[in-house]
Amino acid sequence: MIHSLPSPEPFVILAMPRTGTHYLEALLNDHPNILSNGELLNSYDENWPDKDRLRHSDRELLELAYMRYPPAKKKVTHVGCKINEPQFYERPGFFDELARWQGLKVILLTRNTLESLRSLVQARQTGQWLKFSPDRNEPPSVSLSVNECEAYFKAADDFHARVKDAFDPSKLLMIEYQDLLLKPSACLAAVLAFLGAPAHRFSNRATIQRQETRSLARSLRNFVELRRHFAGGPYAKFFELDDASAPQG
């Protein structure tokens, strides 16, 4: 169905993989007027009843996201979805179509890129992408090659630059993963103000759990080797953070 005018204001959450987008979306969906419908370009996302939607054109997909979105049991004034960087490779023209969508506001979620890559490799190895209940099982420690680190770091830099170049600064809000986990109430308030949605008290009802609580030095088997290789370069910052007490996952 096409929802009656006035249409909800559109937004999108953009990020590299494993940067806390599920957690941010859970916080937003707790708001009585905000609806975020998961990964538009993920054919397995259960938010979308149309399992054949990826056969549609880019424009039709965006109309599905912002005009024909799944019904919700609340008055929706802001509607959105999220897209991870690798999903744009499968639809080369989709980013430009997204950038042309009138009135779109963009939330760019960022994270220490080394943490993002380590978490991605762990999830691929275990097949566990989300964790909804606490347990004592730790994800496996992993090793990363210099080449895969360099490729991933560059992909993240290029993606962040592309987003910043494509959208007016007034339509773009950047949120850091660590701030989201350590200061969720303040981050949520900033996002709501950016979207123009009414203030809403942080409820802490999100059930998503951190999968990795160890530092990079403990969860990455060749951390010292990689830190030595990248020392003095533009990516040294990913190894210099004191993340021993920072939430991760």
Provide structural commentary.
There is one protein chain. The protein is 37% helix and 12% strand. The protein is globular. The protein has a single domain, classed as P-loop containing nucleotide triphosphate hydrolases (Rossmann fold), CATH 3.40.50.300. Helix 2 links the parallel strand 2 (34-39) and strand 3. The protein has 249 residues and is of the alpha/beta class. This is Nodulation protein H.
Content of β-strand: 5-15%
Number of H/I helices: 10
Largest sheet: 5 strands, parallel
CATH architecture: 3-Layer(aba) Sandwich
* Total domains: 1
Give the overall silhouette: globular
InterPro entries: Nod_factor_sulfotransferase, P-loop_NTPase, Sulfotransferase_dom
GO molecular function: sulfotransferase activity
Keywords: Nodulation, Transferase
Function: Required for the formation of sulfated nod factor. Proposed to transfer activated sulfate (PAPS) to a N-acetylglucosamine of the nod factor.
Key traits:
Rossmann fold; alpha/beta; single chain; globular; five-stranded parallel β-sheet; 10 helices; disordered C terminus; 249 residues
Give a brief description.
This protein is α/β, with parallel strands linked by helices. The protein is built from 10 helices and 5 strands; from the N terminus they run E-H-E-H-E-H-E-H-H-E-H-H-H-H-H. Strand 2, helix 2 and strand 3 form a beta-alpha-beta unit.
